[in-house]
């Protein structure tokens, strides 16, 4: 049984742009709901050296750039972060490649959950979301611009795998904590060559829906649903990719977060999250995406990654 207790240490990736305000405020909500023990606000800059023109313009500027950055971040936190009781807050800055340094720090701090901004209109260069999603040792929430600050409706994408069971159990834990409406969603499709059966596309779609309903019933019988209320939604995969249908279903239902269990296998020490999850990560939508990973599996893979 997976619950929120697996999330103890959270890292929030800041880039000192207007996106930070929304990330920090969202981190306040997540830290409270998940009862996070430690939060690391982390910023990576290319260099701690001041440009020559700045040094020349401000010759009396003596504070090292890293101290200046820490001071700036602490100022943002004073304005926008509401610290839960018994939660430690840390500010970290370093130099180097942003994505690589974030992955390294996540390992060093044994992070369970990472918050990343997903920009659509805001300025500034972001992290490589695809690489973070594949290689991070932790679960990741991709936070859009101006995200909802409450969890009133949660949707979990399920494909009847063990990873989607893990994601649904996290959704259940979130419902118990917040009282949110819980939806599950399964995307089904009509197989190629359906016409050989003599059925129309619509007729075969009904057959596949009934089959999916039976699979769904078997799937949820394996989960302890005591005290849980949820509605299951189905979506016919008539898009080029099922990820589009998952996001559209979430949008149509007005959900505040989409929860998705990652799938993985070891291949040259790379963590492969699955094509559906990867496509959702790359979407520039306005719904937060919670990519849930199995902690012990991810740590081992990342350790292998850093030995390359």
Describe this structure in words.
The chain is of the alpha/beta class and 308 residues long. It has a single domain, classed as Rossmann fold (3-Layer(aba) Sandwich), CATH 3.40.50. It is 41% helix and 22% strand. It is built from ten helices and twelve strands. β4, α5 and β5 form a beta-alpha-beta unit. α8 packs across α9. The two termini are 34 Å apart. The C terminus is likely disordered.
Principal-axis shape equals elongated
Number of helices: 10
Q: Give the low-pLDDT segments.
A: 264-272, 297-308
Which structural class fits the helix and strand makeup?
Answer: alpha/beta
Helix content: 40-55%
What is the C-alpha radius of gyration, as a whole number of Å?
21 Å
How many domains in all? 1
Largest sheet: 10 strands, mixed
pLDDT averaged over residues = 83
Explain the layout of strands and helices.
Blueprint: E1 9-14, H1 19-34, E2 38-45, H2 52-57, H3 65-80, E3 88-95, H4 98-108, E4 113-118, H5 129-135, E5 139-144, E6 153-157, H6 162-178, E7 181-188, H7 201-221, E8 230-236, H8 242-252, E9 257-261, E10 266-267, E11 270-271, H9 275-282, E12 289-292, H10 295-306
Parallel strand pairs: 1-2, 1-4, 2-3, 4-5, 6-7, 6-9, 7-8, 9-12
Antiparallel strand pairs: 5-12, 10-11
Helix pairs in contact: 8-9
Q: Which short descriptors sum up this protein?
A:
two-stranded antiparallel ribbon; disordered C terminus; single chain; alpha/beta; Rossmann fold; elongated; ten-stranded mixed sheet; 308 residues
Question: In a few lines, what is going on in this structure?
Answer:
It is built from 10 helices and 12 strands.
